[in-house]
Amino acid sequence: xxxxxxxxxxxxxxxxxxxxxxxxxxxxxxxxxxxxxxxxxxxxxxxxxxxxxxxxxxxxxxxxxxxxxxxxxxxxxxxxxxxxxxxxxxxxxxxxxxxxxxxxxxxxxxxxxxxxxxxxxxxxxxxxxxxxxxxxxxxxxxxxxxxxxxxxxxxxxxxxxxxxxxxxxxxxxxxxxxxxxxxxxxxxxxxxxxxxxxxxxxxxxxxxxxxxxxxxxxxxxxxxxxxxxxxxxxxxxxxxxxxxxxxxxxxxxxxxxxxxxxxxxxxxxxxxxxxxxxxxxxxxxxxxxxxxxxxxxxxxxxxxxxxxxxxxxxxxxxxxxxxxxxxxxxxxxxxxxxxxxxxxxxxxxxxxxxxxxxxxxxxxxxxxxxxx
Length: 372
What we know:
By secondary structure, this protein is α/β, with parallel strands linked by helices. It has helices spanning 3-15, 45-57, 73-76, 98-108, 125-138, 143-147, 157-160, 162-172, 174-177, 181-206, 223-236, 253-273, 281-290, 305-310, and strands at 36-40, 62-65, 87-90, 93-96, 277-278, 299-300, 317-322, 331-338, 342-346, 352-356, 360-364. Strands 1, 2, 3, 4, 5, 6, 7, 8, 9, 10 and 11 form an eleven-stranded mixed β-sheet that branches. A hairpin with an 8-residue loop joins strand 7 (317-322) and strand 8 (331-338). Helix 11 packs across helix 12. The protein is globular and about 55 Å long. Mean pLDDT is 87; it is low at 1-10 and 12-30. It comes from Podospora aff. communis PSN243.
C-alpha cells in the first residue's frame, strides 16, 4: 500500500463526513456525509464567496491551495482544462463557478442545527433580491468587472510581474489586458463612478432603514449578504483603490458598518470551525475518486434551445467552456445532463463535472478531420 493511499485513508477517517479536524480541534457533528474540497487561492475574491459560505454554515471542508497563475497541476489531475478559481468538489461531483457552487451547497447539504441555511426561502421576494444581487455583482458586465479596474498596480508587485500579466492576458484576452496609461486612467474613472453608484444604492436603498443585514433579519448574514458584499468588501480593503474624496466611510457610513459587521461575523464563524486542513493535489484527487456522487443525473431537457439546435443526446461527446473569461480552456466529456440551470459532463477520468448554463457554452465535439 502506497503512502498516498494511507494518507487518504487517514483523511477519510479523521476529517471527512460528519467531523473534521482542524487547528481548533474536532468540529461539531453534522448530517452530511460527502467530503467537500475547495480548490482556491486565499486572495481570490470569488473564492472568498465560497469560503465565507462554508464558514457561516459550519460546513467542514478540505482545501487544496492553488497558485494564482497557471499552470495548476492539481486541477490537471482531475482532467480539467478549466482555469477559473474556485472549483469545489462535493463527493465525486465537481462544480465550476460560484454562481452554481453556492446554490448547490445550499441544496446538497440540508439545513440543520449544525448547518443552518443561508439562502432565502423559495418563492419569496427575498429570494428574488438574492438572485438579482448575484447577477449584479457576478455577470460579465457586473460590478466586479468595474472593480478590477481599480487595482492599484503601482502598489501591488504581483501586477508588475510579466508572468502574471501574461496569465491575465490568457484569462481576459490580450485586448482587455493591453492598454496605454491613458486607457487605464479612463477605465479607472468609469470604475470609480460605477462603484460609487453601487455603494450609494446600498446606502440609500437597501440599508437605508438601518437594518443590519440585507434581508432585514437579526440572525446574522445570509446568502444575500454574501452576494451583495463581496465586491465592496474587496475593493474597500485594497489600499489605494478608491478615491476617498468620492467614496469614504464619512459619505457611506451604513455600507462601511455593514462590511465591518460581515467581516466580524465571518471571523467569529472561522473561530468556531477552525482552519480547514490543506491537502495536496494527489490527496484531493484520491478523496474525490473514492467518494460517492451526492446527486443523481439531471437528464437532458429536450426543450432546451441548445439541445434542439444540435440534436444533443445523453452520452454525446460535448465541449464546455466559459464565454466571459478563461474561454480558451475547453473541457470535453459525455453529456450527463443539460437544462436551463446547468450542464453536466462525465469525464474520461470518471468524474462528474457541473457548470452553470449562464456564462458557459455547450457544443457537440466535432469529429477529427480524416488523415490523408
